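[User] I wish I could look at a protein chain and see how it folds. I have put the entry right below:
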Amino acid sequence: MINFEPDEQQLNMRRLAQKFARNTIRPVAFEYDDAETPPWPVLAQAAQQGLMSYRYPEQYGGSGIDSVLTACLVSEEFGWGCAGIGNNLLAGDTGVLPILLNGNSEQKSRYIPQFCDKKQVRTGAFALTEPNAGSDISAIRTTAVPDGNDYVINGEKTMITAAGIADLYIIFAQLEHAGITAFIVEADSTGLSIGGTYRKTGMRASQVGSIQLKNVRVPASNRLGEEGQGFYIAMRFFEYNRPVLAALAVGVARAAYEYALEYAQKRVQFGQPVISNQAISFMLADMATEIDAARLLVWRAASLVDKNLPANAQASMAKVYATDMAVKATNNAVQILGGMGVMRDHPVEKWARDAKVLQIVEGTGQIQRMIISQLVSTGKN
């Protein structure tokens, strides 16, 4: 039987995230959007409530709730509150999940407890993209050269979420004769520096920047997985993370829909609420339908991952559909508000900006379609 209802544990986590989004994230969302700075007080409160470590095993100090579907329920609420702040709340996963999925017991014992400390906010960064290597992972030019018990890494990474604020980076580099290999690199490593940060259209509370690696020595014990396993590690991370990112987009779209619906019910033109205009009511009907469809795609992809079944195609389907839908829904919300929709007095213009960024990060819609088409054509979907 197909079950569309979350279980009690999932509902409890969603309620906790809803309350946090309503009482803590939403009230300061526009403040941090304007300031374009990470929301440290919000992150500190989230850490205290276990909202940044609930996915990690109890033996390391987490809550042991490892369900990707649960993470999607939480992520949707974060997106409803603010996608930029929500992305900060998910940043720890970008450093911890690759270790949790591919690390050895020593690596897990060393690093994961740091991210479960409720008194100290920690974030991670997944450093794959380079100036000339976006979604084409084979084009990575960052190199790792063995030197005794270390590897020496040189290169540049760009468009990295949490660059400059992360406590550790998952760095992907080319290793001669072995191929792409992943490494755990601590932020205070000698030779690692921040090249700069970017000013973005949306999700402004989430810091993105570039990092430079000049003769960074990394102990062999910090190699993640085997030599040459970098591509597999990256793809496995995306399979786990894309549904969660897609859920963030569903939350943004839901926020825009709810606001536009209330506005259309209250705004009177020609002697009646604008929602009585069929053009407006049909836009709202489409928004409601497409938000629900996106959510179900997200849940399906997450459920497959939770069952340890192949989900690359479904994760990409969820990501491309949910983010495209969020762009459409937020733009429709702007349209329903008319001239007020582009004014910063109303939040819909922010949500439209945030949705556009979500459409691009972690693989554009075109890249997701490429992945889906390749898997479909080979019967691996």
User: Anything to note?
Assistant: Residues 230-266 form the longest helix (37 residues). Residues 235 and 312 are 8 Å apart (CA to CA). The two ends are 22 Å apart (CA to CA).
